[in-house]
């Protein structure tokens, strides 16, 4: 398997929901390249079940320009991360 080594990294954008960085890389053959990486914080996805039914929330998704039905999800910046067992 070819290996890729990161030789540098720089943050190019950050907001409350994501960080974009560019990594300078060196491939196994010695050639250089750049990878763009999107980092997002850890989030929780909730799947609310009521008997045989599931509850969804309607969200506007800007990139699509549409409203979509989906399971609720979100982040809790500044809060300690909990193990999944603690959340159940």
SSE blueprint and pairings:
Layout: E1 4-14, E2 19-27, E3 32-39, E4 44-45, E5 49-50, E6 53-54, E7 57-61, E8 66-70, E9 73-74, H1 84-87
Antiparallel strand pairs: 1-2, 2-3, 4-9, 5-6, 7-8
Features:
88 residues; 5% helix; mainly beta; 3-stranded antiparallel β-sheet
| Order of H and E elements | EEEEEEEEEH
Major β-sheet strand ordering: 1-2-3
Provide mean pLDDT, rounded: 90
Overall strand count: 9
Radius of gyration computed on alpha carbons: 19 Å
Characterization of this structure:
This protein has one helix and nine strands; from the N terminus they run βββββββββα. The chain is mainly β and 88 residues long. It folds into two domains: 36 residues; 33 residues, no CATH class. Strands 1-2-3 form a three-stranded antiparallel β-sheet, with no helix packed on it. The N and C termini lie far apart (39 Å).
Summary, kept brief:
The chain is mostly beta strands.
